[in-house]
Amino acid sequence: MAGPPLGAPPMGGPPGPAPASVPPPPTVDQMRTTPAASTFPGTGMGAAAHTEPPAAFGAAATAQARGLYPQADASVPGAPGAPGHGGMQPTSTGQDAYSAQFLRDVETFNSPAHFVRCSVSRLPNSASAKQRLNIPLGVVLQPLAPLAPDVEQVPSVNFGAVGTIVRCKQCRTYVNPFVQWEANGRRWNCNLCGFSQLTPDTYYASLDESGKRMDRFQRAELHKGAVEYIAPGEYMVRPPQPPVFMFVIDVSYTSVVTGLLNTVVASIKEAIQSGSIPGGQRVQVGIITFDTSLHFYNLNSNLSQPQMLVVSDLEDLFLPLPDDILVPLAESEAAILNLLDSLPSIFGETKVNESCLGSAVRGAFMAMKHIGGKLLVFGACIPSVGELALKSTRDNPRLLGTDREVELLRPAGNDGYKQLAQELTPAQISVELFLAPQAYMDLASICPLAKYTGGDVHYYPQFNINTCFVKFKSELVHVLTRYMGWEAVMRVRVSRGWKITKFDGHLFIRGQDLLVVPNCHSDQTFAIQIDMDDNVTPDPVLYVQSALLYTNSEGERRIRVHTWAALTTPNFNDIIGSIDVQASAAMMSHQAMDQSIKTNQTEGRNKLNSFCQQVVQAGNVCQTEALQYLPLYIMGMLKSAAFRATNDISADLRTYIMMRLETLSVSQTAAFFNPRLMAIHNAPETCQTPDEHGRVQLPEMLNLTSESMTQDGVYLLEDGESVYMWIGRSVDTSFVQAVFGVSSFEQIDTNSAESVVGTRGDPLSTKIANILRQVRLERPTPYMQLHVIRQGEPKENKFFAALIEDRTIGLQSTYMEFLTRMGYRPQQQAPPAGAGMMAAAPPMGGSY
Ligand SMILES: [Zn+2]
User: How far away, in angstroms, is 105 Cα from ligand 1 center?
Assistant: First the structure.
């Protein structure tokens, strides 16, 4: 740390807002204080047209409120309800009465933003309008998104009295608030395909003077964009599947000595004993362990001890007992807990340090294919024997950061794990991977097993029970207890003139457009890229309807339907003004990842650069919040561990990050590219006392630059994956004493600090604990581990790599330099005086 870093006050000086040692680039601030895009007064249709997600669950609460705006209520750029979210903004270009009425309908009826977010809410109506701003058009769906208790639940709709669910005879769209009624209600027109059809007699209602059904506010499906139908028998091909959890656990030497086995056992036990696994009496559980052979367990409740059966012949795998591998949890709970308790001692002395993970999945498949369910695989080392064995020699760190890195990010050989996934999916089996290795594991080859069965990947490199226990346990318990849908399939329909060009997310596409997700859950997010149909003029309105058919844990067949509408327009400014920054960023990230794997990562970054150039250049002509903030997110992507051209990210880690981004919610994706930074050494008193829900208001968000920091400060940074606490070396000793229980900066033991924070009983300690809890509360998954860092420690590089407005390891440009390179031309002002100084004097004594 050379020079006068951080613009710190003299030693002992009062902590306070960071005085900048060099003026921040003025144009950045100018950009940020540009007035909001014009909204249409009088219609009540500002940027907050979408229902704001509930606190602690949706984007607004999880918001990286960045303090970019001078207003006191500045919140996250691009979050729903915040500047730059777009929304249905009527504009001053002269909307006719139809449009005004339609926009009111959209505000009232569209499925809320926690379920559906589109990159724009006014779509181009022609190819030429689209080409003027070539940002990705698409919708991000989180069909089972969790809801806070104070948010309206999704209404259930029962068509039992009607006889059948009313759907379009031509395109199978579900009846929804936007269908048009005619012949006094005797006929209806499908809003997606335009087909005119008879209303079933049992569903008839007369119309009012405006042509709307008289009963529409008595029927949820006619005035709610998000409804859940109770599916009648015709939506079942077999009795509804029960919740099934098959645990497949690595018991190799590595798993035992790192404490992975103990951690898995303790976590499963906690989930079972808490009674919070959904499904009650219907839940079935099985346990298989593996090293170089497979171990099945008879969990029949009539046995005094679970019986272990070893299968060593991996070439010719067979099930040693046909029944009693999967057993009802309610009947066999004692046997299951008993077995879990004894696993660490059974394998405590093992010397076997190899894995037949592929064969273990095959064995589990054989034991559960008659019924389907969730397959949870816990692995500590690379599969080296049996089916789908892999080679650790494939790893080649010299390729990292080069155009050949992509070779390590693609699956080895013939993509065997994807083929295995294709066998599992029709049997309604979804794989959740918990990988906790000490060395290279070849995630690129293994992860397709989760990806194509609708599962997720959880990755704990250098796993150690002492540092990873809480995170691992929280994440496993969350996976076992969140809202789940079984044997799920989804269809997404778009209206005339539009087509779906790509699905992103963890799913399997069967046939043309049937998305198969054997186990769908509340975190699951899909992105759908859309485009105009060739040679067809789109209707004035785009409609998107998704229908997720699933079995809930209580055994009821349900159809969760989301309907969303937006007007099209020839007007460039209307389109620009409607950009949802975070949803657009998420769509760009999907496209750039695709490109990175298909060609190489340079091409992926080029894609982001070209998006950014278009956005910046459009912003030179037409200033809106979206065009101001989108470049910041794109720069965040280029500097992130997902896209940057550096050799400090292992192939396994890069694969994990990409797997995670493929299925992350919009707000989590946004946080990853544009983290939150806040000062906690001077946190306001409002953080002292939680409200009745245990929530506190977080300190003001700071710009992501070391200019925001002082050497006597303590800062929290979170990116939706981890929380970092950076402690300046001139920190007040009373802070150190209160929070860590030691008398000086030098004495803080950063390795054990997490377990101390919030336990000291001191008011200041409690305040810090409240802030930390609030940050975690706003990100239900994954559990964000706290990393405490003292100024000057090597690991602070990770912290500074996230300060994206500075030069970072990922990209040696400040935000201003980056904007300039993208073609930014400051308007009405002289060139930024600060920009040159920034180049001469990088902040924090160096760039990271
Ligand atoms: Zn239709």
Answer: 20
Question: Ligand 1 center to residue 565 CA distance, Å?
Answer: 15
Q: How confident is the model at residue 409 (pLDDT cuts 50, 70, 90)?
A: very high
12-30 core/surface letters (b: 16 or more CB in 10 A; e: else):
eeebeebeebbebbbbbbe
C-beta separation of 343 from 262 below 8 A: no
Other CB atoms within 10 A of residue 421 CB: 24
CA of 197 to the centre of ligand 1 (A): 9
Tell me how far apart the alpha carbons of residues 319 and 298 are, in angstroms, rounded to a whole number. 11
Ligand 1 midpoint to CA 836 (Å): 59
For ligand 1, the distance from its centroid to the CA atom of residue 169, given in whole angstroms, is 7
22 CA to middle of ligand 1, Å? 61
Query: How far does residue 175's CA lie from ligand 1's centre (Å)?
Result: 9
Q: Of 269-273, 466-470, 563-567, where does mean pLDDT reach its minimum?
A: 466-470
β-partners of residue 213 are 207
Q: How far is the CA of 76 from the centre of ligand 1 (A)?
A: 38
Candidates 485, 480, 411, 483; CA nearest to 452 is: 411
* Dist. CA 493 → ligand 1 center (Å): 9
pLDDT at res. 52: 29
CA of 526 to the centre of ligand 1 (A): 23
Separation of CA 567 and ligand 1 centre (Å): 18
What pLDDT was estimated at residue 829? 45
Rounded distance between C-alpha atoms, residue 152 and residue 45, angstroms: 21
Do you find a cis peptide bond into 782, omega within 30 degrees of 0? Answer: yes
Mean pLDDT of 146-157: 90
Q: How confident is the model at residue 721 (pLDDT cuts 50, 70, 90)?
A: very high
How close is the Cα of 503 to the center of ligand 1, in Å? 22
- Residue 578 CA to ligand 1 center (angstroms) comes to 27
Tell me the CA–centroid distance for residue 172 and ligand 1, in Å: 6
Q: Find where tokens 């046909």 sit.
A: 322
- Joined together, the tokens standing for residue 702 give 């700071």
CA–centroid distance, 194 to ligand 1, in Å, is: 6
Please give the helix or strand (H or E) that residue 339 lies within, else none: helix 329-346
3-state SS class at 375: strand
Q: Running DSSP on this structure, what letter comes out for residue 492?
A: E
* C-alpha to C-alpha distances, 261 to 78, 363, 474, 682, 770, nearest whole angstrom: 42, 20, 16, 42, 32
Map out the domains of the chain with their CATH numbers: 111-146+485-568 (2.60.40.1670), 159-223 (2.30.30.380), 244-482 (3.40.50.410), 579-673 (1.20.120.730), 675-803 (3.40.20.10)
pLDDT of 7 reads 34
Cα 559 from Cα 582, distance rounded (Å): 28
Distance CA 630, CA 616 (A): 9
**Hunting for tokens 């992130």 — which residue is that?**
640
Gap from CA of 97 to ligand 1 centroid (Å):
26
Q: What is the DSSP string of 703-740?
A: -SSGGG--TT-EEEEE-SSEEEEEE-TT--HHHHHHHH
Q: What's the CA-to-centroid distance between 663 and ligand 1, angstroms?
A: 29
Query: From start to end of 319-372, where are the E strands?
Result: 327-328
Mean pLDDT of 704-710: 96
pLDDT at 1 over 70: no
- Ligand 1 centroid to 561 CA: how many Å? 15
What is the 189 CA–ligand 1 centroid distance (Å)? 8
Of the candidates 525, 650, 538, which has an alpha carbon nearest to the alpha carbon of residue 587? 525
**Share of residues in the chain with pLDDT > 90 (%):** 73
Ligand 1 centroid, distance to 494 Cα (angstroms): 10
Element (H, E) at 565: strand 557-569
CA of 192 to the centre of ligand 1 (A): 5
